[in-house]
């Protein structure tokens, strides 16, 4: 039995010519290590450290911040209170020393017509800078006020106009109201004091 042929010097044992050519190519591309530098074994590297409690706390805080509900809407300022007209203003109106700026007559109107007319009138009065206006309602049919001077006005519009003027939709326009002097309609009319822009500020 013959022995296997001996390898030529510098040739890898048991390599075919093709494998030997590949080996030469690989060895030409290798670079020698610097002295004193060891190759790190990645297979024995320690596992990555677990995140610290502080890191978990930061993440939790970020999640809580993102999940925080939106801030509540600011509370709207309530409308100002209705105030009676001062006696000195009523005396000046009765004596003609203070004039009425605008006048609205609601005679003959139905309730929805009178309501719409009153809203538009008050807004126009404020827009034009009026200070005192009158709203004429009449005493109403069958009103006790026609027979009893001390009775409270009994007409439907008399009651409803007072209610509308005190409602929130007009409170930002109206400071107060009161029964008019006889010269301006008496118990069948109201003085209405209009709020100006500067009087609406806190």
Any key phrases for this structure?
Ribosomal Protein S8, Chain: A, domain 1; 6 helices; four-stranded mixed beta sheet; single chain; alpha+beta; 4 strands; 202 residues
Radius of gyration: 48 Å
What is the CATH architecture annotation of the domain at 87-197? 2-Layer Sandwich
Number of E-state strands: 4
**Element pattern in H and E:** HHHEHEHHEE
CATH topology of the domain at 87-197: Ribosomal Protein S8, Chain: A, domain 1
Quaternary structure of the protein: single chain
Largest sheet: 4 strands, mixed
Helix amount, in percent? 25-40%
Mean pLDDT: 75
- Low-pLDDT runs of 5+ residues are 142-154
Approximately how much beta-strand content do the residues carry? Answer: 5-15%
| Largest sheet strand order | 1-2-4-3
The CATH first-level class of the domain at 87-197 comes to: Alpha Beta
Structural class: alpha+beta
Structure in words:
The protein is 33% helix and 10% strand. The protein is built from 6 helices and 4 strands. The chain has helices spanning 17-29, 53-66, 87-94, 111-127, 156-166, 168-171; strands at residues 102-105, 132-136, 174-179, 189-194. Strand 1 (102-105), helix 4 (111-127) and strand 2 (132-136) form a beta-alpha-beta unit. Helix 4 crosses helix 5 (156-166).
Summarize the structure.
By secondary structure, the chain is α+β, with helices and mostly antiparallel strands. The protein contains six helices and four strands, in the order αααβαβααββ. It has a four-stranded mixed beta sheet with strand order 1-2-4-3, covered by helices on one side.
